[in-house]
Write a structure and sequence with these properties.
This protein is mainly beta. It is built from 1 helix and 14 strands. Strands 1, 2, 3, 5, 6, 7, 8, 10, 11 and 14 form a 10-stranded mixed β-sheet that branches. Strands 4-9 form a two-stranded antiparallel sheet. The protein has a two-stranded antiparallel ribbon with strand order 12-13. A hairpin with a 3-residue loop joins strand 1 and strand 2.
Length: about 210
């Protein structure tokens, strides 16, 4: 009885066409994978989660609720008159066990804003109020209303303003074993990012 099974290809014969499909797929993947890698893959994972005003954001040392952004005039230091600022208002709660600054070394270090050139910059000034009185510090467990400010030129009136919030970690330094709340300024990642509409300046509402 004669066998009906296909005979293997002899010397010099071309292989079956069934191998052409996988070869084409592999060739397409070889071209597609580098293109996707350059483009960032199928879906880009943002380095910072988008947030919205009015939602609490846990920054470790602080819990922050970003309220809004507006243009305002503030009396500058050293008697140089009033200056225009983009002012972002925040509710701030110190979650640590010690008093924390709202300015240098404190809240200011964890807030940044995106410029038109794509650069993140720290605030120029931070002011706080608690119980109807001005304050530059936040007591543990006591909320503070903070005004975080970036200087604006005479004609600067952006329609939208993007703010980034950095995460604090309770850790020790490289050269000591003392634990404290720290921010890694070498890390570009953010704990939250908000793009806020900017309210026009109001002559009846002025800080200070």
């Amino acid at each position: 009885m004669q066998s009906t099974a296909p005979a293997p290809p002899g010397p010099g014969e071309r292989p079956s066409r069934r191998w052409l499909v996988p070869a084409c797929v592999l060739a397409a993947l070889a071209v597609l994978v580098p293109v996707l890698w350059v483009a960032g893959g199928f879906a880009e994972t943002p380095r910072e989660p988008a947030s919205r005003p009015g939602k609490a954001i846990d920054l470790g040392l602080f819990k922050v609720v970003v309220r809004d952004a507006r243009i305002g005039t503030v009396k500058a230091d050293f008697g140089s008159g009033r200056q225009r600022f983009v002012i972002v208002r925040m509710w701030v709660l110190n979650q640590g066990q010690e008093t924390a600054s709202l300015g240098f070394g404190g809240l200011r270090e964890g807030v940044t804003a995106l410029t038109k050139a794509g650069k993140w910059v720290k605030p120029d000034e931070v002011e706080g109020a608690a119980g109807g009185a001005k304050t530059g510090r936040a007591q543990p467990g006591l909320p503070v209303e903070a005004s975080v400010m970036w200087k604006a030129g005479p004609a600067d009136t952006p329609r939208r303003f993007t703010v980034g919030l950095r995460k604090w970690e309770y850790d020790h330094g490289f050269t000591d074993d003392t634990y404290s709340w720290r921010i890694d300024l070498e890390d570009d990642s953010l704990a939250g990012r908000l793009t806020l509409p900017v309210a026009a300046p109001s002559p009846r509402v002025r800080p200070r």
